[in-house]
Structures are given as C-alpha cells and as structure tokens.
Amino acid sequence: MQNLIKRTTGPNRHSGSGSGADGKTLAQKLAENEAMLAAEAEAARAAAAAAPATGSRSAAPPPMAPPVAAPAAPAPAAAAAASVEPDDTAAIVAAAKAMRDRYAGSAVPAAQVKTCLIVDDSRVIRKVAAKIATSLGYHAVEAQDGHEALARCKQAMPDLVLTDWNMPEMDGIEFVQQLRAIPTPKEPVVVFCTSNGGAKDIHDGIAAGADDYIVKPFDEAALKAKLEKLGRG
Fold first, then answer.
1. Taking a C-beta distance cutoff of 8 angstroms, is the pair 190, 214 a contact?
2. Residue 21 Cα distances to 26, 29, 70, angstroms
3. Helix runs in the chain, H state only
4. In degrees to the nearest 10, what's the CA dihedral of 129, 131, 137, 142?
C-alpha cells in the first residue's frame, strides 16, 4: 500500500491521474476507508458489551424477598364463627331452638298416611272396597252404618270417604249431610258408591255434599280414574 501511495503521490505522478471525480487522492480514500472500518469495529464491540449475556452464562436472578411466615390456621370454633355474621348466628340459634322445642315431650310424628273410610252395611262389599283402597295407597277404615261413620270422622277425619247410599239406621244422604256439618280444617273427598245411577240420584247425592259418585260394582281402575278426576290420584 505504501508503494501504491508513493506511485500516486511521487514526482513521476501525471497531473490529474491520481485524483478521482470528487478531487480526493487514492491515499485519502484509503485512509477514510480504514477510519470507517475502525469505527464499525468499535461500534460492534460496544454493542456486544452492552447486550445481556446469553448461552452458557445466564443473567443473575433477582434478589428473593425474605420469607413471610404463614398465618396460623384458626381453631375450628373460631373458623366457624368467622364464617357467620352476627345477625345470621342469632337467626340460626333461634331456628335450632324452635326445631328442638317443636316436639318437646312428645314423639316426632310419622309421615302422614292417607286414610279411606268405607261406609256400607255389607261386610263383603266393605272388604272388597278396602282392598281396592289399600292398593291405591290408602289406609282403609270400615264402618257398618252412618252413626259409626260419623263417630269415626269426629275422632279422626279421613282423606277419602266411600259411602253406600241405601243403609239402615241412617242412609247415605243423611250421613253426608251431617258429615259436612262437622267443623274441620281438612275436608274429605266423598264419593257415593251406589247402584242408583239415575240423574235425580246423582243430583241429590251431589247436593247433599258428595264430590262424585261411582256405580257398584267397581274395580281399582274405575276408582283410580275417579280420584284422578277429583285431583286425588
């Protein structure tokens, strides 16, 4: 390169042959090129020094915060108390006392069983009707006439009454009329079980207080359909 500089700058240099179009000699251009390369190398070294270390060397982890002791677990009673507001606690206590004292001095009542009172002077008909009522989920109770039936109703009002029309001592019409006169919060469903299927008989039975009628002899399906019609299926 020095030989080249000498050839281009020496006394044997032809006029105008050592300068380019921009008026710079070859030596000046070479010097500028070397300066530019040096500047690029210096910039590359500075960038490498500023970049975070990668590869085998990893960045230092951030300092860990000092450990914090976990809070002690509350005792069971304290935890329960913390989960219930004071007003809720009072309400829960009051409800518990009410349930505890509800049956004080008496046995807890069993699930209510539906009862069916069958009123007929024929023992055979009572047994057949009782079997049908039992198959439909009722507890059957029997009475052979209107007087006995009224006594049973005053003692414990049934859910369903199946009564004959023609009976000695007290017929079905009179029995139903007196039954409906008994004050009770639980009105039973009353169905006449009779062979009297005329329009007048039906009218008289409903007017006396019956809810419906069924013609004898009847079976389980007929009584079930009648009770479903009355909303007691």
1. no
2. 11, 12, 81
3. 2-9, 26-50, 76-82, 86-102, 123-135, 146-155, 172-180, 199-208, 220-229
4. 60
Domain membership flag for residue 189:
yes
Residue 61: inside a domain: no
Q: What is the pLDDT of residues 75-90, one digit of tens each?
A: 444 444 444 444 555 6
- Write out pLDDT tens, residues 102-152: 434 444 344 468 999 999 999 999 999 999 999 999 999 999 999 999 999
Contact 225, 196 (CB under 8 A): no
Backbone angles phi, psi at 18, to 5 degrees: -100, 0
Residue 136: CB atoms within 10 Å: 16
Distance CA 191, CA 60 (A): 94
- What burial class does residue 141 get, using C-beta atoms within 10 Å of its C-beta: 0-12 exposed, 13-18 middle, 19+ buried? buried
Residue-wise pLDDT tens digits, 191-222: 998 886 677 888 888 899 999 999 888 999 99
The count of structural domains within the chain is 1
CATH number at residue 147: 3.40.50.2300
**Helix pair angle (123-135, 220-229), 10° resolution:** 60
* One-character DSSP codes across 110-140: PPP--EEEEE-S-HHHHHHHHHHHHHTTPEE
> Cβ(11)–Cβ(29) under 8 Å?
no
